[in-house]
Amino acid sequence: MCIRDRCMDVAKQQVADGAHVVDINVDDGMLDGHAAMQKFVKIAVTEPEVCKAPFMLDSSKFDIVLAGLKWCQGKPIVNSISLKVGEALFKEHATILRKHGAAVVVMAFDENGQAATEAEKVRICKRSYDILVNEVHFPPEDIVFDPNVLTIGTGMEEHAAYGIDFITATKQIKEQCPYVKISGGISNLSFGFRGVTYVRESIHSVFLHHAITESGMDMGIVNAKE
Questions:
Q1: Model confidence over 141-151: pLDDT tens digits?
Q2: Band (226; pLDDT cuts 50, 70, 90)
Q3: Which of 4, 90, 158, 197 is most buried, by the most CB atoms less than 10 A from its CB?
């Protein structure tokens, strides 16, 4: 069985397990990412068991995202863009995505790096929102902010509040940026406890409870089967 068929089987299984979105990421040093993304999406849109879920085109390289976007049916989600490339390129990328009708994940990064504290997360997301909505005219309901779920339990005191910072920032972002959604990579939170599955699952459960019920988190990257 070729790699393409194995990837398609993984996608089918994820949808069968209850995944709401199929994340497609071909960022690997051994692959031609542009060709791999294009080929996979072209085939995936013909697979009824896969294409009944929306696609998330996931790459750190915008040209690879575009390769998949041109072959997508329906409304895909692009993961991701951010201000770390500078405001001009950020607006250029957002304009292209708007023309394609895609939703977008916007990371809480700017020209100075990743947002770690509550204040930084809110500031960067609000700045991104204002540019997208007021200058690019991007539909606010198509914006998904990822304010960075960062690792706790590292032994460093400055990391101890990362979970709380995400939860409190989420509430403020939802208040200051109407109609947006909030997402995050949940496994990052407990990476310091890798290998201790029960502890990690417990941390995730408590975190998601508070992030969803208290702050309005909308979606997260999780194991669909579990």
A1: 999 999 999 99
A2: confident
A3: 90
